[in-house]
Structure formats: structure tokens, C-alpha cells
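Researcher: I'd like a structural prediction for the single chain below. Treat it as a standalone chain; there are no partners to consider.
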Amino acid sequence: MTIVGFIGIALCAIAKLLGLLKVFKDLLPHLQASWSRRNQRKIPESIQFTLTKFEKIWIVDCSILEALFQKLESLKDAPQGKLAGKIGTVIDLKNLLPVEIWFCDNPRTADTKFEADILNLVTPNTLLLLDRGFYHFNFWLQLIAKNVNFITRLKKGAAIHVEQVFTDSFSLRDRLIRLGYGTNKTPFITLRLVEIRSGKTWHSYLTSVLDPTVIPPYVVADLYRRRWRIEDAFNTVKRLLGLSYLWTGSVNGVQLQIWGTWLFYAVLVDLGDAVADELSLPFDSISLEMIYRGLYHFYVAHQKGKATDPIKYFASPENQDLGIVKRQRKPNIGLIFDF
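Model: Treating it as a single chain, here is the predicted structure.
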């Protein structure tokens, strides 16, 4: 093949990638708007309260992509267990829709390598829920300078200097603390440390929101507990939607699969929320997995002329055997909080 041919193939691949990326980016605002129009149901109180103080609550985390699927002839010579790369992801806690996805082809890239992308994305009056992979004082100070706040976890063994005590009781400690050593790598930073006892265990949370009346301590803990929703999203795109199986070793091919899978995820979340709205149920009551698996049954019914609207189909009483609505679990009476 000539160099012109190679260039033509490369340009074609880039065009496909940019096209799919554009569809993903163009669709997200429409899905956000759809959620806002339909959502008259109650959202969790901690989120509802926090959104009176902040415009957005975003979860930020990274995930390493799985090993390349080596059953393809084109990948037979790839090193065994070669990982495809790493993605940085931002999810909107309010509606669980993706906000932004970044890709790096080096799976060993530290989470902190995505800091510049995050700083370029966030806008003032945003609250971020950060994994401890972003435990970086200079990054935190840059966020604060942009009027962006965050909640994260305190690292074990961190040296703290208490500056002010708000609450100190048997089950709750809420204090203003100073971290750092005043060096370029670890400059001084003043944060709020919220510690809540659950049984015999203390759970510690750091936040740049220094005023307890803006975000009370139990709201801090409940919001951070909900950071796990991004792990649910990773699990859905990898295990349910197939991102665990990467079918090509090329960077463009991997990115096409990433954008396509997250695009499907966003549409699936939107469909699940629409079904929840039709049934007047919280979104958490709906199983995205069973919605996904039920699409086949809807397709068959549609082909037979028995269904035209997937929302009406999944909400219909005669189709509840599809398991769209999750079974209620018995509450654990012994636990008041689950942090």
C-alpha cells in the first residue's frame, strides 16, 4: 500500500472517531434537558440540599481498561495481558449522565495526569467528589482558586494541625485543619475534616467547604458515599455493555469503542430514568441491566406490531416479569447510616 493509501485510511479513521465523539458531545445536553423536563420526582435529600448551594455535583474518577481481546488474528502477536489504556470520567451525580470522558493509551498513567483536563472543564460553584487518586495539594489549591469545591477522603497517617473545632462528640467530629509542610510539593492548605463514627470505626472526609452550614457533616458523608455511583457506571459500561472486550489494538479503534459504549450508556440511563418517571418511582428502583436485556423483547414485540414505545412497554404491568423494577431489600434496622 502506498503512503497515500495509509494517509487515506488514517484520515477515514479520524473522521469516524471525530464523528462519534461529536454525536456523544451533541447528545449529552439533550439528555440533560430531557431529565430536567421530566424529573418531578424527589431526588435524595443530600443532593437536593447541596444543589441549593452549588450549581453542579460531579463525580470524578479513573479506570484502567481491560486487556485486549486476543482472539482476533490481528492481535495474536500482542503481548499477553496487554492493557488498552486508561479513562478519566466525570459523572453528574444528579442524573448519573456522563459529563466528560478522557482517554490515555498508557494504563500506568497516574490519575493526577488528568488534573489539567479537570481544571479546564470545571466551572465556578461546582462541587467535585474526588477519589484519593487526586490527593494532590497543588491541584486542590487550583480548584479552590477557581471557586470549585471538593470532597475526598483523608489519607491514613496524614499529619494534621487543628485550627478550629466545630463539633466534638461521641459519634461526630467536625474540625478546621491545616495540612502540608509549606513546601512546593506539599504547600499548606486549610480544609475541613469531618469524622463520623459507625460502630467502632471512624470514617474521615476532607472538604474545601469550610462552613458547616453550607454542607453539614452528615451531608458531606452521604454525598461521598454516593461517589460509588461512578463505580456502578464503570461496571455497567465494562461488564454489561462490553467495554471489557477491546477488539482492536489501534488507538483510534479503542477510542471508537469507548465513545460508542459511553454513548450507549447515556441513552440507557436516559431510558431507565424515563421508565422510572412513567412508573413514578425513584431512578434507583430501576434495573439498567434488565432494561438492557429487555430491549430484545421490545424489539420482538415491535416486529409483531405489539409495541411502539419502549417506555410504555417497560412500564406496562404485563411486562413487569422482565424484572425492570428492582426487588425491595429488607432494611438493616441495626444500621442508621451506611458510609
